[in-house]
Amino acid sequence: MLQIQDLSVAYGHRPIIRNLSAGPLLPGRVVSLLGPNGSGKSTLLKAMAGLLKVARGQVLLDGQDLTKLSFERRAQRVVYLPQSLPAAVHLRVFESVMVAARASDLDPHAQDASPQRILEVLGRLGIEHLAMHYLDQLSGGQKQLVGLAQALIRTPRLLLLDEPLSALDLNYQCHVMDLLAQETREHGLTTLIVLHDLNIALQRSDEALLIREGALVGHGRPDQVVTAESLAAVYQVDARVETCSRGLSHVLIDGLCAPAS
Ligand SMILES: Nc1ncnc2c1ncn2[C@@H]1O[C@H](COP(=O)(O)OP(=O)(O)OP(=O)(O)O)[C@@H](O)[C@H]1O
């Protein structure tokens, strides 16, 4: 179970995340993290992953404060996939997933980095045919899928994914969200995913967190969080959330809200 308590994060003297509390987020659930550009989503994920100094507050995972753990112990529990992947090195896809599996390895038996397991993870993502390709010769979307393979091979307790669908086509977006839901449920992970596509958040996440200017303004079922009112308040768009013939919620954008006079 994940609980964020009174978290504050700053860059220098500039506060970004302000006394943010959220949770509990239960294992086995996919939670979308929503909010406008610059609202602090990546900053929140980086702080939870231990990559930024936390000015105040706690991130409790099963009662343990992640902000106080050593790098190695945190790396065993938390996997963070950044928005932009590091410049691709001249490694084959297969090797890069193997390196990722061993990255957090205090206990050599903790991660199964056998060739079969690596091929299985690549296969689940539909990219086993890329196993022997070089990372620096892949397309943007293919690199993003390899990043996901590097994350999933590690079976953490907490999976933090920053816009993991941004370079993927429609088919892969659906496929990856289905796979993440399956992995999350099967392994009892807590999965937090930054998304800009509100329809994907509505239809394929179990819960949503909505932030604005570093503060939490909504948490609950996606259809309770993504509403015409919240979209007007947070994104300044004039929108409707309607239910289609299959019973799924869709956001329809009519335009920008009229500026306040
Ligand atoms: N390394 C940094 N140093 C100083 N300020 C930063 C740094 N990284 C981000 N910021 C600022 O922090 C604020 C929040 O940025 P962040 O990347 O967390 O937003 P975001 O919600 O993820 O945005 P986006 O949806 O555009 O990716 C922004 O105003 C940004 O300019």
Report on the structure:
By secondary structure, this protein is an alpha/beta fold. It has two domains: 2-222, Rossmann fold (3-Layer(aba) Sandwich), CATH 3.40.50.300; 227-261, no CATH class. 33% of the residues lie in helices and 30% in strands. The chain is built from nine helices and twelve strands. It has helices at residues 41-48, 71-77, 93-102, 115-124, 140-152, 170-187, 198-204, 222-225, 228-235, and strands at residues 2-11, 14-25, 29-34, 56-61, 64-65, 78-81, 158-162, 190-194, 207-212, 215-220, 237-243, 249-256. The strands form three sheets. Strands 6-7-8-3-9-10 form a six-stranded mixed β-sheet, sandwiched between helices. A hairpin with a 2-residue loop joins strand 1 and strand 2. Helix 3 (93-102) runs parallel beside helix 5 (140-152). The longest helix is centred in the last third of the chain and has 18 residues, at 170-187. The chain is globular and about 60 Å long. The N and C termini lie far apart (45 Å). Adenosine-5'-triphosphate (ATP) is lined by residues 11, 16, 35, 37-43.
According to CATH, what is the topology of the largest domain? Answer: Rossmann fold
Provide the CATH top-level class of the largest domain: Alpha Beta
> Ends: how far apart?
45 Å
Strand runs, count? 12
The biggest beta sheet, please? Answer: 6 strands, mixed
The domain count comes to: 2
Rg measurement, Å: 19 Å
Which ligands does the model contain, each kind named once? adenosine-5'-triphosphate
- Strand neighbour order, sheet with most strands: 6-7-8-3-9-10
Shape: globular
Low-confidence stretches: none
CATH architecture of the largest domain: 3-Layer(aba) Sandwich
DSSP summary: helix tally: 9
Question: What is the average per-residue confidence, as pLDDT, rounded to a whole number?
Answer: 92
| Percentage of residues in helical conformation | 25-40%
Strand content: 25-35%
Strand pairing plus helix content: what structural class?
alpha/beta
Helices and strands, in order, run as EEEHEEHEHHHEHEHEEHHEE
Determine the CATH superfamily of the largest domain: P-loop containing nucleotide triphosphate hydrolases
